[in-house]
# Entry
Amino acid sequence: MDKLKNKTNINCIIVDDEKEACDRLESLLKNFENVNVEAKIQNSEYGIKKIMELMPDIVFLDVEMPKKSGFDVVHEVRKQNINPTFIFVTGYNQYAIKAIHNAAFDYLLKPIDIDELKNTINRFYNLQEEKKQINLPSELKNKFSLTPREIEIIELIAKCKSSKEIANILFLSRHTVDTHRRNILKKTGMNTTAELLSVIFKI
# Structure
């Protein structure tokens, strides 16, 4: 396995009620020297608690679990305005569309293929590098009470990405992206995207 050199370390949590699945994924992730597994959790409710406590970069998340499903976990965590990257890991491909609608970064089928996992990790790194190129001033974030998702979208708009491109990058529907764009303009009091960008680059 090629190692990903000169990359920022990322922390992740595995939430899956099957111990064997947790152990296998952890074993696969050991192939990446920059990836640190902070916790393996077999209970969805405890998983929510640990995600909010540890604030990982990535959460590898099973879909079908007792008490709360993986989608429930995503919903509960995001209600707290915490937005790690969610990657669903499941043995059932019928959840793919719902995963996309829940803005999952990726959807991996069990048993996980190491090459597919590598592609996913590489895409995550590439997106993080892109985000680093444009950072919104803290004054702008605080002044308009922008959410992490809104900040992501503004940063991509600043890189001249269209709504369709942003939707593909963030695994959202175009309708959702357009809704965020309208909300951003409303929050900032701007009339157009061009006006918003002029403010960003002046601050």
Notes: Strands lie at 10-15, 35-41, 58-61, 85-90, 106-109. The longest strand covers residues 35-41.
